[in-house]
Design a protein that fits this description.
The structure holds 2 protein chains of 2 kinds. In chain A, 77% of the residues lie in helices and 0% in strands. Chain A is an all-alpha fold. The model of chain A has no long low-confidence stretch (mean pLDDT 88). Chain B is α+β, with helices and mostly antiparallel strands. Chain B folds into 3 domains: 103 residues, Dipeptide-binding Protein, domain 1 (Alpha-Beta Complex); 101 residues, 3-Layer(aba) Sandwich (D-Maltodextrin-Binding Protein, domain 2), CATH 3.40.190.10; 214 residues, Dipeptide-binding Protein, Domain 3 (Dipeptide-binding Protein, domain 3). The mean pLDDT of chain B is 90. Classes of the chains: A mainly alpha, B alpha+beta. At the A-B interface, helix 2, helix 3, helix 7 and helix 11 of A face helix 4 and helix 10 of B.
Chain lengths: 316, 450
């Protein structure tokens, strides 16, 4: 098991390296010039100053040299400074981390808490009126884009009640109630999206398992419905669902980028978006590595969960 | 442009326009933060700051100090600046936020001004999360007794427009800007007591092109292009009829010649498809023309240009549009490094002469986006720069506009009103053209206390 995790982490490093290469060169192929973005619209009249800035930022070197400089920094755990703010990029990410982690954790939790019971009910009451109602609701929610639901959640309360969640971000331990009100709306949007696909997969996966021989055996032993469903069927039906949760981490991260902007939350997603717009290369690179890391860890956790769900799965 | 005394209580310009004497306000203190700890603001601060700007190549304001011979502190409260030659915009430039006085101690300690912002102003910067929020608190040591009234100002950067409007409707923010009449109406429906201030900014939106190269060096082509544009339709569509067409100079009140007074040329500023086609034929394109064009992707602006594209097609001018994002425009069209034509807006400096020099003078390296190279234009710009008599200077600048009117080195578009919306409880707010966001709240208060 330990060996398995070590090997997975090693593969994870390779994935990180690949993600680093892709984003490094992709950013530099984007048209535009980081130097002009640093200066903004107040462009200097003096081209020598531009060259000086370019040299100072290390952007005068050929791309492959820039890559080697960056890579050797990464190996020394130095991901560089933001071109815009001159602050270390890792520090920027860490300062924005609480918002994004809270959004992700709460929406995953809320999403799972909604999705699995609804999926189970839908499967057990297959093709009843209840099943249809639940499916219509989830498909409608799935069809609505998150940014649109997010915007509507701000616009309508502001018209009907002259109210929106307080602007800004209060830390949870400072004032839990304000914090939950502030993150509540985006969490709701992320969680509904997250839960709809999980619910649908829970339903179909459970339906399949319920038709298996061992479930029929469980019924024929005279076990109660709760035991048959929860212990025998659901646990086995969860394997594809857990896989999906892992995959969805990527979509959740993508969702935070948009929702943090709509709800003015100072999270990593907002930082990433601004960095791309401003061609802040080191910041974009570091943020992408961070996203890749989250994704790798989430999928590792998923794989480890398999072993717990189905003891037949052995890690080698 | 009216200059209001602030840190300089009064100033004197010598007869020959070469010596400026500034008398500083006594008893002004830097904000009470380390490393300054509320020490007095003195003439040496001004001398040090101006020296620093002048010696920082690439600083946006360094060129303002090119004509300066020497700067010295006559005594603790008097600064004298001697110029090599008269430079009439100097005083206005010194009032610009880009010439703001900065503290030596901070630069000595940090090496730059990036880490801390300490000034002498009414508000102290307490928190800044880049692109998210800026928090300012009252400076208790501000020189003007009782000012500011507000305990603080939080400036939020809300990127999503509907989220901005929602926050204003929910009374979470007391002041927003709106440039769209539709947003304005929607806010007024929700908050009928909103106070609206309408103002024309100094922005200048225009088509620009490589006027130094074919095909755009052909003046008839530029005129045909200009005559095809329906500026009134833009005003009606995007500003609900509340806006105006721009001429070769943005609306600098006394200096500007409105387009209806541009003589013969004013005809070209009005849409006339037949005339445009005639000009196009005279330019050598009787069957129409296709022109490469860079379109900056910028909310609110892109749509305006797309509308003009329809006007142009009716006059047989087809734009081969390449859409580029903001970062690409800033590195290409904005600084004149491009081929063909593009469109964009420029914020105008406070002085009209400075605007002309940046936009039209052949020695201007970056902002001369159309690569204008015209000896007479250069001569007139240089002349107004030395002309101390305002009446004579106005005459030169107006003559220059008459000369530029039919050249169309730039094809100016229109400008709509901007609206400053303030909640019914916010009083005493006066917008300024200054970029200093906090300064406008100096004399502002909230009715009913907090």
């Amino acid at each position: 098991m330990r060996q398995y995790i070590a090997r997975r982490l090693l593969f994870g490093l390779i994935v990180l390296w690949g993600a680093g290469i892709i984003i490094f060169f992709l950013m530099r192929f984007l048209p535009g010039d980081a130097v002009y973005m640093v200066l903004g619209e107040d462009v200097s009249a003096d081209p020598r100053a531009l060259d000086a800035l370019r040299v100072r930022l290390g952007l005068d070197k050929p791309i492959h040299e820039q890559y080697l400089v960056w890579m050797s920094g990464v190996l020394r755990a130095d991901l560089g400074k933001s071109l815009q703010t001159d602050e270390p990029v890792v520090g920027q990410i860490i300062s924005r981390l609480p918002v994004t982690l809270e959004l992700m954790a709460l929406s995953t939790l809320l999403g799972v808490v909604i999705a699995i019971p609804v999926g189970v009910i839908s499967a057990l009451r297959q093709d009843t009126r209840l099943d249809y109602i639940l499916r219509v609701i989830t498909i409608s929610l799935l069809a609505m884009p998150a940014f649109w639901i997010g915007t509507m959640l701000l616009v309508f309360p502001s018209i009907w009640f002259r109210w929106i969640p307080p602007l800004g971000y209060t830390e949870f331990f400072q004032d839990p109630i304000s914090n939950l009100i502030q993150v509540g709306f985006p969490v709701f949007v992320l969680a509904t999206h997250f839960s709809t696909s999980i619910m649908r997969l829970t339903r179909s996966s459970l339906l399949e398992v319920l038709r298996q021989d061992y479930v029929r055996t469980a019924w024929s032993k005279g076990l109660r419905e709760r035991v048959v469903v929860a212990r025998h069927a659901l646990k086995n039906a969860m394997i594809p669902v857990v896989t999906l949760i892992g995959i969805h981490m990527g979509r959740l991260l993508g969702g935070t980028v948009i929702l943090e902007s709509i709800f003015s939350l100072p999270g990593v997603g907002r930082l990433f978006l601004e960095a791309v717009i401003n061609r802040d290369y080191p910041q974009v690179q570091a943020t992408v590595l961070f996203y890749a890391l989250v994704f790798i860890i989430a999928n590792l956790v998923v794989d480890i969960t398999y072993g717990w769900l189905d003891p037949r799965i052995k890690f080698q | 442009m009216i200059l209001v005394p602030d840190l300089a209580e009064s100033w004197k310009v010598s007869e020959d326009g070469k010596t400026y004497t500034f008398h500083l306000r006594k008893g002004v203190k830097w904000q009470n933060l380390p490393p300054l700890n509320g020490r007095e603001f003195v003439a040496e601060d001004v001398v040090w700051t101006y020296d620093r700007i002048a010696k920082t190549p690439g600083s946006a304001s360094a060129t303002w100090f090119d004509p300066v011979d020497k700067i010295r502190a006559v005594d603790r409260y008097t600064v004298e600046i001697v110029m090599k030659e008269p430079y009439v915009a100097f005083l206005v430039n010194m009032a610009d936020p880009y010439a703001v006085i900065t503290p030596k101690e901070v630069v000595d300690a940090d090496g730059s001004l990036k880490k801390r912002a300490i000034g002498t102003g009414p508000f102290i910067l307490t928190e800044r999360v880049s692109n998210i929020v800026t928090k300012l608190r009252r400076n208790p040591g501000y020189w003007e007794p009782g000012i500011p009234y507000l305990d603080g100002v939080d400036i939020f950067n809300i990127v999503d427009l509907s989220a901005q409007v929602a926050a204003f409707r929910a009374s979470q923010i007391d002041h927003i800007g709106a440039s769209d009449k539709g947003d304005l109406d929607s806010i007024l429906r929700a908050q009928p007591n909103t106070q609206v201030l309408k103002h024309l900014g100094l922005g200048w939106c225009k088509f620009h092109m490589r006027a130094d190269k074919p095909p755009w060096d052909n003046i008839k082509l530029r005129q045909a292009f200009a005559a095809a544009l329906d500026r009134q339709a833009e005003i009606d569509t995007f500003y609900s009829g509340e806006g105006r067409s721009l001429g070769p100079l943005p609306p600098y009140s006394r200096f500007e010649v409105p387009i209806e007074k541009l003589g013969e040329s004013s005809r070209i500023y009005k849409r006339d498809v037949k005339y445009a086609k005639q000009l196009l034929a005279e330019a050598g394109y009787p069957a129409g023309v296709e022109l490469p064009f860079l379109l900056r992707k910028q909310s609110g602006f892109t749509e305006r240009i797309i509308r003009y594209n329809n006007d142009l097609m009716e006059a047989n001018i087809k734009l081969l549009i390449k859409v580029i994002d903001n970062a690409e425009y800033l590195a290409t069209g904005y600084i004149g490094k491009y081929e063909g034509a593009a469109a964009g807006c420029t914020g105008a400096p406070a002085d009209p002469g400075e605007f002309l020099a940046l936009q039209y003078h052949s020695s201007s390296t970056v902002y001369n986006q159309s690569h204008v190279k015209d000896a007479l234009v250069d001569k007139m710009i240089d002349e107004q720069r030395r002309t101390l008599d305002e009446g004579k200077r106005i005459k030169i600048i107006q003559d220059l506009q008459m000369y530029l009117a039919d050249k169309f080195f730039y094809i100016p578009l229109t400008q709509g009103y901007s609206y400053s919306l303030t909640s019914s409880r916010l009083k005493g707010y006066t917008p300024t053209i200054s970029f200093n966001e906090a300064d406008v709240y100096r004399y502002t208060w909230l009715e009913g206390g907090k």
